[in-house]
Amino acid sequence: MRDYEAATAFLGEWGRFQRLVFFLLSASTIPNGFNGMSAVFLAGTPEHRCVVPGGANLSAEWLNASIPLELRGGQAVPSRCRRYRLAALTNLSALGLRPGSDVELESLEQEPCRDGWEYSRDVYRSTIVTEVWQEEHPLSDHGRADCLQLPADLLHQLGDVHSALSHSGNGTDLKLRGGLHTGDWQMLLLALTIPGLFCIPLWWIIPESPRWLISQGRYKEAEVIIRKAAKINGVPAPEVLFDTAEMQDWKPQQQQKAILLDLFRTRNIATITIMSLLLWFFTSVGYFGLSLSTPNWHGNAYINCFLSAVIEVPAYVIAWLLLRCLPRRYSLAGIFFLGGGVVLFIQLVPADFNVLSVGLVMLGKFGITAAFSMLYVYNVELYPTLVRNMAVGATSTASRLGSIIAPYFVYLDAYDKYLPYILMGSLTVLIGILTLFLPESYGNSLPESFEQMLKVKCFRNRQQTTGIRNAKESPKVLVTPL
């Protein structure tokens, strides 16, 4: 059977049909961007402090001094999870003593936030976090770690924000309020979700891949789509696209069904699959980790998120140029080294150079974004048609797992503000090194079968070495007639 590219060469490379499918597929991904980064605002954690009940008989001075100070970011700020014991403050206030002058605040006993929290509205008017309340046990009974755990857990629950969420740990039981409430985050979620409904008709508009249909033995359906594409492009189609005899010969091979284990059928494809899963997983950790950390950067959270999105535009342009002009392995490795290296460098920037730190984060986001977009193309080129969709699905699943883990990297700044960047930068550099061992697909046709798959670099070198050794051991003798 003729090669697919040869059979469809009469369509041209960039006709009206190809442009139509390309732009419709591109439009379908726009709503994904809305919801992908919505967690930054839907589950944002505003500044908060313990609530002092309105019925507490405290003077104005003791009310202002009821929250102990803690060191955060090099500055003394009110504690988020502790307050001075209310009963002691009431007695001291009744005696007419003044905080600071008559009573040393550091000597007073502290207690957790037994009456909930009050949230700052300077940045967010309403988020999911502000609507979480305690049912049985106070969150702060278990210290700061649980306080930071809550936003990380909420980041994974945006697809089901109106149902109960249980967080079990040391007896803690937290739940989201059931039902729809009025508030800013609900309207934002609704506005971000509705555009996705307009993509549903694309199911009937965008055709199935003819290449995939052929791999499944569905030649008539593939021929209908190809002839329709020829009509849209305004080019004549040949009378016979696929020879009947050739189709019968290839039918048993093309109609074989692939299963997930086929991604590990041979040592070569298993190595490629494992390396691809690691690449997608850690790239997703870096991408979503930097994206979700925008509220922690210096400056306005909205401006930071806007800049984080804008930097992706030149990243995609650079990725497109690299894919057209340079080998895949070296391009990806270089981009990974750039993104991971600058993120690692953030810890060396003095604390006063906040703008430089934000700039380095943006440059790291630029590199990881470019690499992420290139992985889609590179991954497709490594696998044969029979398992190509399955391979993309498996690696995409690994990517989703990375996005689930990413918020936990962000909240490691509770221990050290540079720790998330050290981990994400190190992992990004590591997968850059890993990329160099993958086969080079630049300039090669898409493989149609497992036999046409490219070899992993170490396997290819071993095979060549073995071939040379065998050639030396068994030299061929040329016999020519006299």
Report the sheet with the most strands, covering strand number, pairing sense and barrel closure.
2 strands, antiparallel
Weakly predicted, low-confidence segments: 133-183, 461-482
Mean pLDDT: 76
Strand adjacency order, main sheet: 1-6
The number of helical runs is 20
Beta-strand content bin = 5-15%
Helix content: 40-55%
Rg calculated over all Cα atoms: 30 Å
Identify the quaternary structure here. Answer: single chain
Q: What string gives the helices and strands in order?
A: HHHHEHEEEHEEEHEHHHHHHHHHHHHH
Secondary structure blueprint with pairings:
Layout: H1 4-7, H2 16-28, H3 30-36, H4 39-42, E1 48-50, H5 60-64, E2 69-72, E3 75-78, E4 82-84, H6 86-94, E5 110-112, E6 117-119, E7 132-134, H7 144-154, E8 174-176, H8 184-193, H9 202-205, H10 210-215, H11 219-233, H12 244-254, H13 267-292, H14 301-310, H15 312-325, H16 328-345, H17 354-382, H18 385-410, H19 419-435, H20 457-473
Antiparallel strand pairs: 1-6, 2-3, 4-5, 7-8
Helix pairs in contact: 13-17, 13-18, 13-19, 15-17, 16-17, 16-19, 17-18
Characterize the structure shown.
By secondary structure, this protein is mainly alpha-helical. The chain has helices at residues 4-7, 16-28, 30-36, 39-42, 60-64, 86-94, 144-154, 184-193, 202-205, 210-215, 219-233, 244-254, 267-292, 301-310, 312-325, 328-345, 354-382, 385-410, 419-435, 457-473, and strands at residues 48-50, 69-72, 75-78, 82-84, 110-112, 117-119, 132-134, 174-176. A hairpin with a 2-residue loop joins β2 (69-72) and β3. α13 (267-292) runs antiparallel to α17, α16 runs antiparallel to α17 and α16 (328-345) runs antiparallel to α19.
